[in-house]
Amino acid sequence: MHVFDASAVLAMVYQEPGAEEVTSRLDGSLISSVNFSEVLQKAGAEGYDLNEVAALLRSMVDGIVPFDDRMARETAGLWQQTRVEGLSLADRACLALTAAVSGVAVTTDTAWATLDLQGIAIHVIDR
């Protein structure tokens, strides 16, 4: 199961380098509602219609996972291990969801390549 970071989804939305690889990982994919919100915010800032982007994303991923109190605790727990790399709340939400489903986090953020998080698999897409 693949869990998408906002950067991976945005590469697909904007048809940037790496978009094809993201598309090839859609089957069985999830995104945290935090990352879903980040995608919408960034796409909206670029002038994309939020409703269209939301509909597109819902049609592509198998699920948008709510950010509940369990995910909030798991996300907060990752801060100490990821703060040196400057990971955002949304980045950590993606990683927490990845751990919860024993999946693979998919991102284009090269800073994630240096992370060594016990039990969390990360795939950085080359751009």
Description:
The protein has 127 residues and is an alpha/beta fold. The protein is built from seven helices and five strands. The chain has one domain (2-124): 3-Layer(aba) Sandwich (Rossmann fold). It has helices at residues 6-13, 19-24, 33-45, 50-60, 69-77, 79-82, 89-101; strands spanning 2-4, 29-32, 63-65, 104-107, 121-124. Helix 3 (33-45) packs across helix 4 and helix 5 crosses helix 7 (89-101). The model has no long low-confidence stretch (mean pLDDT 94).
Query: What is the string of helix and strand elements?
Result: EHHEHHEHHHEE
Main sheet summary: 5 strands, parallel
From the 3D coordinates, which CATH architecture would you assign?
3-Layer(aba) Sandwich
Helix content: 40-55%
- Beta content: 5-15%
CATH class: Alpha Beta
**Order of the strands making up the biggest sheet:** 3-2-1-4-5
Low-confidence stretches: none
| Number of self-contained structural domains | 1
Structural class: alpha/beta
Instruction: Using the coordinates shown, work out and report the CATH topology.
Output: Rossmann fold
